[in-house]
């Protein structure tokens, strides 16, 4: 247990930040799942529109260092490739 006032405050802040980051990660996962659902439906136009919205979410969360920028790029790349594969 934290003994000093500074350590107690840092423990409180860590809990707050952890909860906030968990919320952002949940938003990220939801955005990715929305695109995957559109891809499974086979509608390329709808998938492209949802993908554009999701890219914004993914980039915003990566900018906040909740996930690494390379992980964000990997998500975007894989989703984009799946959307392009719908046409072929």
TrEMBL record:
Chain spans, region Disordered: 1-28
Highest taxon of the lineage: Bacteria
One GO cellular component, as annotated: ribosome
SUPFAM superfamilies recorded: Ribosomal protein S20 (SSF46992)
InterPro entries linked: Ribosomal_bS20 (IPR002583), Ribosomal_bS20_sf (IPR036510)
UniProtKB keywords: Ribonucleoprotein, Ribosomal protein, RNA-binding, rRNA-binding
Pfam families with a match to the protein in the record: Ribosomal_S20p
Compositionally biased tracts (Basic residues): 7-20
Function according to Swiss-Prot or TrEMBL: Binds directly to 16S ribosomal RNA.
Family listed: Belongs to the bacterial ribosomal protein bS20 family.
Protein name: Small ribosomal subunit protein bS20
Lineage per the UniProt record: Bacteria, Pseudomonadati, Pseudomonadota, Betaproteobacteria, Rhodocyclales
Gene: rpsT
């Amino acid at each position: 247990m934290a003994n000093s006032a500074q350590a107690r405050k840092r423990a409180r802040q860590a809990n707050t930040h952890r909860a906030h980051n968990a919320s952002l990660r949940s938003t990220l996962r939801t955005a990715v799942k929305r695109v995957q659902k559109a891809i499974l439906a086979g509608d390329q136009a709808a998938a492209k529109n949802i993908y554009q919205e999701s890219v914004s979410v993914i980039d915003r969360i990566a900018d906040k260092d909740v996930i690494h920028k390379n992980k964000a790029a990997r998500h975007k790349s894989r989703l984009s490739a799946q959307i392009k594969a719908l046409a072929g």
